[in-house]
Amino acid sequence: MNSEEELRIGVFICHCGGNISDTVDVKAVKDAVEHFESVKIVETNEYICSIAGQDVMKTMIKEKGINRVVVASCSPLLHLETFRRAVSNADLNPYLLEMVNI
């Protein structure tokens, strides 16, 4: 990205089958972040680490021209490489991914 390229951030929030959504108000998190100027999409998913969840992420990155990704899910120790691969498979530098442990 050069200094003139628009930031287009995609935020993906995982419910983790209730492990997260039973404690964290996922809708409130979504509502809080979707108003930031550079955030172009906010998607919630039951299991974003699943193949289907990763496919949603890859599709959204490509369709919406996302050039930065934030994944709010369980520990990066568990899934950092999973999401880096998904981002890379969407033709985006995997180091333009940030994980948030919620």
CATH architecture term? 3-Layer(aba) Sandwich
Strand order of the largest sheet: 2-1-3-4
- Sheet with most strands: 4 strands, parallel
CATH topology title: Rossmann fold
Which range best describes the helical content: under 10%, 10-25%, 25-40%, 40-55%, 55-70% or over 70%? 25-40%
Sketch the topology as an H/E string, one letter per element. Answer: EHEHEHE
SSE arrangement:
Blueprint: E1 9-14, H1 26-33, E2 39-45, H2 51-64, E3 68-73, H3 76-89, E4 97-101
Protein name: Disulfide reductase
Give your account of this protein's structure.
This protein has 102 residues and is α/β, with parallel strands linked by helices. The protein has a single domain (9-101), classed as Rossmann fold (3-Layer(aba) Sandwich). The protein is 35% helix and 24% strand. The protein has 3 helices and 4 strands, in the order βαβαβαβ. It has a 4-stranded parallel β-sheet, sandwiched between helices. Helix 1 links the parallel strand 1 (9-14) and strand 2. Helix 2 (51-64) crosses helix 3. The protein is globular, with a radius of gyration of 13 Å.
